[in-house]
User: What shape does this take?
Amino acid sequence: MTHTRYSGYARALDTAARTATPIAQLTLTEPGLDRAGALEIQRLLMEERYMRGERRIGLKLGLTSVAKMRQVGVNEVIWGRLTDAMLFHDAAELAFSAYIHPRAEPEIAFILKRSLPADASLSETALAIEAVLPAIEIIDSRYENFVFSEADVIADNCSAAAVVLGNPVAPRDVGNLGMVMRLDGRVAQLGSSAAILGHPLRALLRAARLAADAGEPLQPGDIVLAGAAMAAEPLRPGAYVSVEVQDLGRVGFTVS
Ligand code: OOG
Assistant: This one.
Protein backbone atom coordinates (compact mmCIF):
# COMPACT_ATOMS: atom_id res chain seq x y z
CA MET A 1 0.00 0.00 0.00
CA THR A 2 2.70 2.44 1.06
CA HIS A 3 4.74 1.54 -2.01
CA THR A 4 1.80 2.22 -4.34
CA ARG A 5 1.17 5.58 -2.68
CA TYR A 6 4.86 6.51 -2.82
CA SER A 7 5.04 5.57 -6.52
CA GLY A 8 2.06 7.84 -7.13
CA TYR A 9 3.80 10.73 -5.35
CA ALA A 10 7.01 10.10 -7.32
CA ARG A 11 5.08 10.20 -10.61
CA ALA A 12 3.23 13.36 -9.56
CA LEU A 13 6.55 15.11 -8.77
CA ASP A 14 8.04 13.89 -12.05
CA THR A 15 5.05 15.18 -14.03
CA ALA A 16 5.16 18.50 -12.17
CA ALA A 17 8.79 18.94 -13.24
CA ARG A 18 8.22 17.84 -16.84
CA THR A 19 5.18 20.06 -17.34
CA ALA A 20 6.40 22.97 -15.18
CA THR A 21 3.18 22.82 -13.17
CA PRO A 22 3.36 23.02 -9.36
CA ILE A 23 1.60 20.57 -7.05
CA ALA A 24 0.46 20.70 -3.42
CA GLN A 25 2.95 19.67 -0.74
CA LEU A 26 2.90 15.90 -0.19
CA THR A 27 2.79 16.35 3.59
CA LEU A 28 -0.67 17.92 3.30
CA THR A 29 -2.04 14.49 2.35
CA GLU A 30 0.75 12.46 4.02
CA PRO A 31 1.44 14.33 7.29
CA GLY A 32 3.43 11.43 8.76
CA LEU A 33 5.96 11.37 5.89
CA ASP A 34 9.44 11.10 7.47
CA ARG A 35 12.96 11.43 6.06
CA ALA A 36 13.21 7.72 5.19
CA GLY A 37 9.86 7.76 3.37
CA ALA A 38 10.82 10.94 1.55
CA LEU A 39 14.12 9.40 0.42
CA GLU A 40 12.19 6.41 -0.91
CA ILE A 41 9.92 8.72 -2.93
CA GLN A 42 13.03 10.51 -4.27
CA ARG A 43 14.51 7.13 -5.27
CA LEU A 44 11.31 6.20 -7.12
CA LEU A 45 11.20 9.64 -8.76
CA MET A 46 14.75 9.15 -10.03
CA GLU A 47 13.81 5.69 -11.35
CA GLU A 48 11.25 7.45 -13.58
CA ARG A 49 13.98 9.71 -14.95
CA TYR A 50 16.49 6.88 -15.46
CA MET A 51 13.81 4.90 -17.29
CA ARG A 52 13.52 7.80 -19.76
CA GLY A 53 17.26 7.46 -20.43
CA GLU A 54 18.73 9.98 -18.01
CA ARG A 55 21.99 9.02 -16.34
CA ARG A 56 23.05 9.82 -12.77
CA ILE A 57 26.16 12.02 -12.80
CA GLY A 58 26.53 12.81 -9.12
CA LEU A 59 24.74 14.49 -6.30
CA LYS A 60 23.92 17.78 -4.69
CA LEU A 61 23.78 18.81 -1.09
CA GLY A 62 21.27 21.38 0.04
CA LEU A 63 20.87 23.58 3.10
CA THR A 64 24.56 23.47 4.01
CA SER A 65 24.62 27.18 4.91
CA VAL A 66 22.70 29.21 7.48
CA ALA A 67 21.58 31.65 4.73
CA LYS A 68 19.87 28.82 2.83
CA MET A 69 18.33 27.23 5.93
CA ARG A 70 16.82 30.59 6.87
CA GLN A 71 15.51 31.20 3.36
CA VAL A 72 13.39 28.03 3.29
CA GLY A 73 12.84 27.40 7.01
CA VAL A 74 14.34 23.88 7.02
CA ASN A 75 17.38 23.31 9.26
CA GLU A 76 18.76 19.97 8.10
CA VAL A 77 21.29 19.14 5.40
CA ILE A 78 19.49 17.42 2.51
CA TRP A 79 20.72 15.71 -0.65
CA GLY A 80 19.49 14.85 -4.11
CA ARG A 81 20.70 13.24 -7.34
CA LEU A 82 22.00 15.02 -10.45
CA THR A 83 21.47 13.64 -13.97
CA ASP A 84 23.00 14.45 -17.36
CA ALA A 85 19.74 16.13 -18.39
CA MET A 86 20.33 18.79 -15.70
CA LEU A 87 23.86 19.61 -16.83
CA PHE A 88 24.81 22.87 -18.60
CA HIS A 89 28.09 24.64 -19.15
CA ASP A 90 29.31 28.22 -18.97
CA ALA A 91 27.42 30.64 -21.27
CA ALA A 92 24.44 28.30 -21.60
CA GLU A 93 20.94 29.55 -22.36
CA LEU A 94 18.18 28.12 -20.15
CA ALA A 95 14.52 28.44 -21.12
CA PHE A 96 12.43 30.03 -18.37
CA SER A 97 9.36 28.16 -19.64
CA ALA A 98 10.96 24.82 -18.69
CA TYR A 99 10.65 25.71 -14.99
CA ILE A 100 7.97 26.69 -12.47
CA HIS A 101 9.64 29.40 -10.33
CA PRO A 102 13.39 28.88 -10.82
CA ARG A 103 16.03 30.39 -8.56
CA ALA A 104 19.81 30.55 -8.95
CA GLU A 105 22.32 29.67 -6.24
CA PRO A 106 26.09 30.29 -6.06
CA GLU A 107 27.94 27.02 -5.58
CA ILE A 108 31.25 25.20 -5.61
CA ALA A 109 31.36 21.85 -7.44
CA PHE A 110 33.82 18.97 -7.10
CA ILE A 111 34.66 16.32 -9.68
CA LEU A 112 36.06 13.13 -8.20
CA LYS A 113 38.89 10.92 -9.41
CA ARG A 114 38.44 8.21 -6.74
CA SER A 115 35.49 6.51 -5.13
CA LEU A 116 34.73 7.44 -1.52
CA PRO A 117 33.54 4.95 1.09
CA ALA A 118 31.18 5.88 3.93
CA ASP A 119 34.07 5.98 6.41
CA ALA A 120 36.37 8.20 4.32
CA SER A 121 38.40 10.69 6.35
CA LEU A 122 38.64 14.39 5.54
CA SER A 123 42.15 13.93 4.10
CA GLU A 124 41.05 10.94 1.96
CA THR A 125 38.18 13.09 0.74
CA ALA A 126 40.60 15.89 -0.24
CA LEU A 127 42.79 13.39 -2.13
CA ALA A 128 39.79 12.06 -4.08
CA ILE A 129 39.19 15.42 -5.81
CA GLU A 130 40.07 15.64 -9.50
CA ALA A 131 38.97 19.26 -9.98
CA VAL A 132 36.97 22.08 -8.42
CA LEU A 133 34.67 24.39 -10.37
CA PRO A 134 32.61 27.52 -9.88
CA ALA A 135 28.97 26.57 -10.42
CA ILE A 136 25.43 27.88 -10.38
CA GLU A 137 22.61 25.61 -9.34
CA ILE A 138 19.11 26.27 -10.60
CA ILE A 139 16.59 25.07 -8.05
CA ASP A 140 12.88 24.87 -8.82
CA SER A 141 10.60 23.51 -6.13
CA ARG A 142 7.79 21.50 -7.65
CA TYR A 143 5.54 22.70 -4.79
CA GLU A 144 3.19 25.65 -4.99
CA ASN A 145 4.69 28.95 -3.78
CA PHE A 146 8.11 27.32 -3.20
CA VAL A 147 6.92 26.26 0.28
CA PHE A 148 7.78 22.84 1.74
CA SER A 149 8.77 20.83 4.81
CA GLU A 150 11.98 18.80 5.09
CA ALA A 151 10.23 15.61 3.93
CA ASP A 152 8.55 17.42 1.00
CA VAL A 153 11.81 18.85 -0.36
CA ILE A 154 13.71 15.56 0.01
CA ALA A 155 10.97 13.72 -1.94
CA ASP A 156 11.25 16.43 -4.62
CA ASN A 157 14.95 15.60 -5.18
CA CYS A 158 15.82 18.68 -3.15
CA SER A 159 14.47 21.10 -5.78
CA ALA A 160 17.28 20.11 -8.20
CA ALA A 161 16.52 21.43 -11.68
CA ALA A 162 19.78 22.32 -13.46
CA VAL A 163 23.43 23.07 -12.84
CA VAL A 164 25.71 25.32 -14.87
CA LEU A 165 29.39 24.43 -14.48
CA GLY A 166 32.35 26.71 -15.05
CA ASN A 167 35.82 25.54 -16.03
CA PRO A 168 37.51 22.92 -13.84
CA VAL A 169 40.66 23.96 -11.99
CA ALA A 170 43.15 21.83 -10.05
CA PRO A 171 42.27 20.98 -6.44
CA ARG A 172 43.20 23.69 -3.94
CA ASP A 173 42.10 24.98 -0.57
CA VAL A 174 38.51 26.14 -1.01
CA GLY A 175 37.94 26.84 2.70
CA ASN A 176 37.48 30.61 2.56
CA LEU A 177 36.98 31.90 -0.97
CA GLY A 178 35.05 35.07 -1.74
CA MET A 179 31.90 34.40 -3.79
CA VAL A 180 29.73 36.88 -5.64
CA MET A 181 26.55 36.30 -7.62
CA ARG A 182 25.48 38.99 -10.07
CA LEU A 183 22.15 39.51 -11.81
CA ASP A 184 22.51 41.55 -14.99
CA GLY A 185 25.90 42.73 -13.73
CA ARG A 186 24.61 43.93 -10.34
CA VAL A 187 25.81 42.27 -7.16
CA ALA A 188 22.91 40.21 -5.76
CA GLN A 189 24.66 37.97 -3.22
CA LEU A 190 28.08 38.24 -1.63
CA GLY A 191 29.74 35.80 0.76
CA SER A 192 32.42 33.23 1.46
CA SER A 193 32.73 29.51 0.81
CA ALA A 194 33.36 29.20 4.57
CA ALA A 195 29.57 29.54 4.96
CA ILE A 196 29.26 26.00 3.51
CA LEU A 197 29.45 23.85 6.67
CA GLY A 198 32.53 25.84 7.72
CA HIS A 199 34.44 24.37 4.74
CA PRO A 200 33.08 22.91 1.46
CA LEU A 201 35.29 19.85 1.99
CA ARG A 202 33.01 18.93 4.90
CA ALA A 203 30.09 19.02 2.47
CA LEU A 204 31.92 16.58 0.20
CA LEU A 205 32.62 14.28 3.16
CA ARG A 206 28.94 14.47 4.12
CA ALA A 207 27.95 13.68 0.52
CA ALA A 208 30.23 10.62 0.55
CA ARG A 209 28.52 9.29 3.69
CA LEU A 210 25.00 9.98 2.49
CA ALA A 211 25.64 8.40 -0.92
CA ALA A 212 27.25 5.31 0.61
CA ASP A 213 24.38 4.97 3.11
CA ALA A 214 21.95 5.01 0.18
CA GLY A 215 23.89 2.15 -1.48
CA GLU A 216 25.33 4.27 -4.30
CA PRO A 217 28.79 5.40 -3.09
CA LEU A 218 30.50 8.28 -4.88
CA GLN A 219 32.49 7.11 -7.92
CA PRO A 220 35.32 8.52 -10.06
CA GLY A 221 33.81 11.10 -12.42
CA ASP A 222 30.95 11.99 -10.07
CA ILE A 223 30.07 15.66 -9.69
CA VAL A 224 29.17 16.89 -6.21
CA LEU A 225 27.58 20.27 -5.49
CA ALA A 226 28.49 21.44 -1.99
CA GLY A 227 25.32 23.51 -1.49
CA ALA A 228 24.76 27.24 -1.77
CA ALA A 229 26.85 29.58 0.36
CA MET A 230 24.28 32.38 0.09
CA ALA A 231 20.53 32.71 -0.52
CA ALA A 232 18.98 31.90 -3.91
CA GLU A 233 17.79 34.61 -6.33
CA PRO A 234 14.61 34.28 -8.42
CA LEU A 235 15.15 34.19 -12.19
CA ARG A 236 13.20 36.03 -14.85
CA PRO A 237 13.25 35.80 -18.64
CA GLY A 238 16.08 37.81 -20.15
CA ALA A 239 18.27 37.73 -17.04
CA TYR A 240 22.03 37.15 -17.16
CA VAL A 241 23.33 35.43 -14.03
CA SER A 242 26.99 35.06 -13.13
CA VAL A 243 28.92 33.69 -10.19
CA GLU A 244 32.54 34.47 -9.51
CA VAL A 245 34.53 32.48 -7.00
CA GLN A 246 37.93 33.76 -5.87
CA ASP A 247 40.74 31.58 -7.35
CA LEU A 248 38.24 29.44 -9.32
CA GLY A 249 36.93 31.88 -11.89
CA ARG A 250 33.54 32.80 -13.21
CA VAL A 251 30.52 31.03 -14.68
CA GLY A 252 27.35 32.47 -16.17
CA PHE A 253 24.17 31.77 -18.10
CA THR A 254 21.28 33.57 -19.75
CA VAL A 255 17.58 32.96 -19.20
CA SER A 256 15.59 33.01 -22.42
C1 OOG B 1 16.13 23.39 -1.36
C2 OOG B 1 17.45 23.11 -2.03
C3 OOG B 1 18.53 23.98 -1.43
C4 OOG B 1 21.01 24.48 -1.44
O1 OOG B 1 22.07 24.57 -2.09
O2 OOG B 1 20.92 24.87 -0.28
C5 OOG B 1 19.83 23.88 -2.12
C6 OOG B 1 15.53 24.69 -1.83
O3 OOG B 1 15.93 25.76 -1.39
O4 OOG B 1 14.58 24.62 -2.64
O5 OOG B 1 19.97 23.37 -3.19
